[in-house]
Amino acid sequence: MTTHVMTENLATEAETRSARTAGRHAMAPAAGNGMNGSLPTGANQIVHAHVLSRGVTDLQAKYAEALDGGLIRRTVHAAYRELNRTARLKTYLPTLALNQAETRLREIADRTAAAGTPEVETVETRDGMTTAA
After folding, report:
1. Partners of 124 in the β-ladder
2. Is the torsion defined by CA of 108, 109, 113, 117 positive or negative?
3. Which strand (E) or helix (H) includes residue 70?
4. Looking at the predicted structure, is the pLDDT value of residue 118 above 70?
5. Which of 106, 124, 72 is nearest to 132 (CA)?
6. How far is CA 80 from the centre of its chain?
7. Burial, 27: exposed, middle or buried (Cβ in 10 Å; 0-12, 13-18, 19+)?
């Protein structure tokens, strides 16, 4: 008889526990975001803008003597737009854009140092690409 009573008590405790945890899971933030319980994976524009802004500041400090700040900003944003057009996973988009922009800026700085001119004028085409003129 004691076993039967313990089993009943354990069953009641298990039901109480499941009722408590079910309430917790129903209140999870991801459940109420319209994504069927999964976490959001899209681009976070606020974070992207912040990362790009810090990256532009870092690149302006790095290339301050060779290139104009406006050129650096335009190059970074053009690289971001180009990658954003075709990217399926946008989580690392700002980092990839900054790397691509730094490669372009390094090439421009090397060309201007070799030519002896202080700066290269760039032109943005209709499709958002930045080219040296």
Report:
1. 130
2. positive
3. helix 69-86
4. no
5. 124
6. 11
7. exposed
